[in-house]
């Protein structure tokens, strides 16, 4: 029964992250409509996206610690509840400042999702099973990103753009009720965790393992955030696709990204099952994905939206596979009780780099340079991230390979 319930928890976390990405992607899909209605510039839109990124980045410094301290049950429920209400607040915004405020609160609250998902895998699964659980969790953003372009534009055309924000946020509130009604499995090693001495939160910043995660997230997350916020505009700008027609190409991209998340969890688990060391399996998998994203600058020469979608799909396939293994690396080297804090700090760096990339994109588009400068950055950044991991952690050694939850210390102020 406990084994069945831990997979139920994974399923509920999966649904929450799907809703997370629905809420955050709506604005990107409605950009042409809202830009025409409110007379936004590309820089205005970049500032809205950056407000989300900056608020999320700051929140990540606390939400990882918060989820470690309060626990999954109440910590995750509070985060989902707040982000759902913030998503609904977009329906009542009429100015750039109103949208910026709504995006900032949404970004801050949604930052709970990543540490909660990673902590779930670290808490209830051993090292080999974690890769599978993280792989499943890794496709959740893509499922949300697939459903959103298929449903939101049509919903907006049928019921108005305000209704899309209200319905998506309302689904999050329903999730909170279901989550609180489910009894979570007992956490392995809970007694040992309660008795363990606390380690100052800031001490992670002197840990080389933490810097491997920071650099990996900073170098690669910028690609995801850039494409998440600008992909609909890219199809609209380069291929003339309207709000009603860009859904299918965008959905194809995120479908391929979902496959990347699944393979990112499966491949290292399969290699370890064949006798590979954790170090070799993890880094070889990351190298494969780093190489797969290299062709993405060819997008600017694509002759059709569908060819562009395949190129972008391969890029996000690679990103999700690589990202799943960055999460896996974090659970490999940190004990379950502090993994939320560790991934939160990494996500802080990733959101800041994402904000920089978004602002760079707004400048590049307004200046007439197009999308090529950002795509060149996307192509090389994964090899740089893997090089940073190899330099800092020449050999990945699992902190807790067989018994989730057993570790010598917990994070505290």
TrEMBL record:
<feature type="transmembrane region" description="Helical">
    <location>
        <begin position="74"/>
        <end position="93"/>
    </location>
</feature>
<feature type="transmembrane region" description="Helical">
    <location>
        <begin position="158"/>
        <end position="182"/>
    </location>
</feature>
<dbReference type="InterPro" id="IPR050382">
    <property type="entry name" value="MFS_Na/Anion_cotransporter"/>
</dbReference>
<feature type="domain" description="Major facilitator superfamily (MFS) profile">
    <location>
        <begin position="9"/>
        <end position="397"/>
    </location>
</feature>
<feature type="transmembrane region" description="Helical">
    <location>
        <begin position="132"/>
        <end position="152"/>
    </location>
</feature>
<feature type="transmembrane region" description="Helical">
    <location>
        <begin position="211"/>
        <end position="231"/>
    </location>
</feature>
<protein>
    <submittedName>
        <fullName>MFS transporter</fullName>
    </submittedName>
</protein>
<feature type="transmembrane region" description="Helical">
    <location>
        <begin position="287"/>
        <end position="318"/>
    </location>
</feature>
<keyword id="KW-0472">Membrane</keyword>
<dbReference type="Pfam" id="PF07690">
    <property type="entry name" value="MFS_1"/>
</dbReference>
<feature type="transmembrane region" description="Helical">
    <location>
        <begin position="48"/>
        <end position="67"/>
    </location>
</feature>
<keyword id="KW-0812">Transmembrane</keyword>
<feature type="transmembrane region" description="Helical">
    <location>
        <begin position="338"/>
        <end position="358"/>
    </location>
</feature>
<feature type="transmembrane region" description="Helical">
    <location>
        <begin position="246"/>
        <end position="267"/>
    </location>
</feature>
<dbReference type="InterPro" id="IPR020846">
    <property type="entry name" value="MFS_dom"/>
</dbReference>
<feature type="transmembrane region" description="Helical">
    <location>
        <begin position="105"/>
        <end position="125"/>
    </location>
</feature>
<feature type="transmembrane region" description="Helical">
    <location>
        <begin position="370"/>
        <end position="393"/>
    </location>
</feature>
<dbReference type="InterPro" id="IPR011701">
    <property type="entry name" value="MFS"/>
</dbReference>
<keyword id="KW-1133">Transmembrane helix</keyword>
<dbReference type="InterPro" id="IPR036259">
    <property type="entry name" value="MFS_trans_sf"/>
</dbReference>
């Amino acid at each position: 029964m406990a084994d069945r319930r831990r997979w139920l928890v994974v399923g509920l976390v999966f649904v929450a992250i799907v809703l997370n990405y629905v809420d955050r992607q709506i604005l990107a899909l409605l950009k042409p409509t809202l830009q025409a209605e409110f007379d936004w510039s590309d820089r205005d839109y970049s500032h809205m996206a950056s407000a989300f990124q900056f608020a999320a980045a700051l929140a990540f410094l606390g939400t990882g610690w918060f989820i470690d301290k309060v626990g999954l049950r109440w910590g995750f429920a509070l985060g989902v509840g707040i982000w759902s209400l913030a998503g609904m607040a977009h329906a009542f915004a009429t100015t750039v400042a109103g949208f910026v405020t709504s995006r900032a609160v949404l970004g801050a609250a949604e930052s709970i999702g990543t540490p909660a998902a990673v902590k779930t895998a670290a808490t209830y699964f051993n090292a080999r099973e974690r890769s599978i659980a993280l792989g499943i969790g890794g496709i959740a953003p893509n499922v949300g990103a697939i459903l959103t372009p298929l449903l939101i534009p049509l919903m907006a055309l049928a019921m108005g753009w305000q209704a899309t924000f209200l319905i998506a946020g309302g689904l999050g509130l329903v999730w909170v009720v279901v989550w609180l009604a489910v009894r979570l499995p007992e956490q392995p090693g809970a007694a040992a965790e309660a008795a363990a001495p606390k380690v100052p939160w800031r001490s992670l910043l002197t840990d080389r393992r933490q810097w491997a995660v920071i650099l990996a997230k900073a170098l690669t997350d910028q690609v995801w955030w850039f494409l998440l916020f600008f992909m609909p505009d890219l199809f609209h700008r380069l291929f003339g696709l309207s709000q009603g027609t860009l859904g299918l190409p965008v959905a194809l991209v995120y479908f391929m990204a979902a496959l990347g998340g699944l393979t990112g969890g499966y491949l290292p688990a399969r290699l370890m099952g064949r006798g590979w060391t954790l170090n070799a399996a993890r880094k070889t998998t990351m190298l494969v994905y780093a190489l797969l994203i290299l062709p993405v600058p060819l997008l600017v020469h694509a002759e059709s939206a569908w060819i562009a979608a395949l190129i972008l799909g391969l890029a996000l396939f690679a990103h999700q596979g690589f990202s799943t293994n960055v999460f896996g690396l974090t659970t490999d080297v940190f004990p379950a009780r502090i993994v939320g804090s560790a991934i939160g700090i990494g996500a802080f760096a990733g959101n800041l780099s994402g904000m920089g990339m978004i602002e760079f994109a707004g400048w590049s588009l307004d200046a007439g340079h197009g999308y090529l400068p950002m795509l060149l950055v996307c192509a090389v950044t994964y090899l740089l991230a893997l090089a940073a991991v190899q330099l800092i952690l020449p050999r990945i050694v699992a902190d807790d390979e067989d018994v989730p939850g057993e570790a010598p210390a917990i994070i505290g102020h």
